[in-house]
Specification:
Elements (H helix, E strand, L loop, with lengths): L18 H6 L7 H7 L18 E5 L10 H10 L4 E5 L1 H11 L1 H7 L12 H13 L1 E4 L11 H4 L3 E5 L2 H8 L7 E8 L4 H15 L1
Parallel strand pairs: 1-2, 1-3
Antiparallel strand pairs: 3-5, 4-5
Length: about 210
Amino acid sequence: MEYWPKNLELKGNGKRKTQTQQNQSSTTHPDSKNQSVQNKDTKSSSSEPWPYEIPQILHRQWLTYTIPKVTNKLVTSWNNQVPALQNWFWTESSFKTFIMEKIPGFAKEFKYPFQKKRFNVSDTEIWRYFIMYEYGGIFSELDFELLKPIDEKILNHSCVIAQEPLVRAFLMNDQYDRAFLSNEIMLCRPRHPFFRLVSSGLFTSLSR
């Protein structure tokens, strides 16, 4: 089962972008009015061009714009270390707008938000996969602190997914002989085949 419009696959290899490519890659958050209010204190403060294929967008999500106070320091650490990042915050409302605009067939068939859980993943986890496929950028959970600028060697790749520590994989999944990918922090260019595959797998799982 597939719901993304056809011919959305973009080719890329992680190489630095030309200035023309950078200008062509600009895009807007579906809830841009609220974004400007929420980001008034954390706007990008760098005028330097962003030369990487992974967009300079930092995605975070919560059910509403009111996040736990304990995460405030962790959230601002990203802009302190990488001032060029643009903050895109996602809520249940803005994600609903997103799927209605980008994948209306999916929204119509499954009547998001889902009435019941059909597979072992939460609605909020589904958000991040679809958002990363459509826009690319960097996704981080609210409780992740960035202690130093992101290494250029990482940003020069087209898609970077972290591996869960083996101890956590064992404790959470009772598996100790295989690697698990983490969805808590992800970096990727838009419409990468990896997130196309993940999205297609979710569509198929929901259709069962």
